[in-house]
Amino acid sequence: MLTRRLALAALSAAPFASARAQAAWPDRVVSFTIPFPAGGSADLLARLVADRMAPVIGPAARIVVENRAGAGGTIGSEYVRRASADGHAILLGTPSTHGTVPALQPDTTPYDPIADFTAIAILGRSPIALAVPTNSPHRDPQALLAWLRANPGKASWGSSGSGSVGHLAGELMSLSAGGVQAEHIPYRGGAPLVEALTKSEVQYGWEPLGSLAAAARDGLFRIIGMGSPTRHPLFPDVPTMQEAGLAGFAASTWNVMLGPKGMPPAIVTRLNAAANQVLAMEDVKARLATAGIDAVSDSTPATTGAFIAGEFAKFKDIVTRARLNLAR
């Protein structure tokens, strides 16, 4: 009888112990994993958000950013997936980690991009931009598309790598334009693609605006189209691909905050509120805007999860329609 009473007491106390643990969160350093090398726009965003979020969460809170790069971002993502779901391990998710790589390589990606993570918040978005060399005769997407249709197979175009969001944006343009034919040249990152555009090695390229904006402003090449549904304030004279006649065209890069599957809802809510508060700060928005990133400060865990699922479905559709099959 005594043993039964002790067991019942332990069971009744468990919810209160769990509530106390959540109320005390964070009781140690929170690790914010960036699944890519330091130095890129994703790294800038994560470090800025982490630095500002810590005091919002609490005076003793500490968030440490860790870069765990490799395999298109899947190494860092898998690290967080396997971590304890107690709110002390979070991840910066991107189109690569939770879109293009799982869509292109479902058999070798070690996680399910939707089911294996807890969606917390959308942090920022940036359109994918269409750029051409300065000596290109094409001043808008319509002119480029007309030339491509008239010269099938004669052009080459670049992205920052096979399976990158720029690669799939280029494939989407081809599909949306009725199957224009051009050779894809995958470069090893955004910087080599910028150099290729500067040297006119390709007729056009697709890359996130954050990687192209500075060089385009310096006149090293021209941005002639935006993948966003509306024009971007950094380049208000550049039309969208929808304006160019590709109905429904939408291609953007994005950053989301995720955690391991099964995180306590109370902690998820606190992280979401803290992220939104930081991203609504004027100086934070201004800093990100200079890098071509639009801060998002109104997401919820539910809208974040729906957004990721929608993006993943879109990438899977592009992969299927373009018949892409990339081996890691």
Automatic annotation (TrEMBL):
Keywords for the protein's UniProt record, in alphabetical order: Signal
Signal sequence region: 1-23
Xref: InterPro entries: BUG (IPR005064), Bug_dom1 (IPR042100)
SUPFAM superfamilies according to UniProt: Periplasmic binding protein-like II
Pfam families per the UniProt record, alphabetical: TctC
Record-stated family: Belongs to the UPF0065 (bug) family.
Protein's recorded name: Tripartite tricarboxylate transporter substrate binding protein
Organism whose genome encodes this protein: Falsiroseomonas frigidaquae
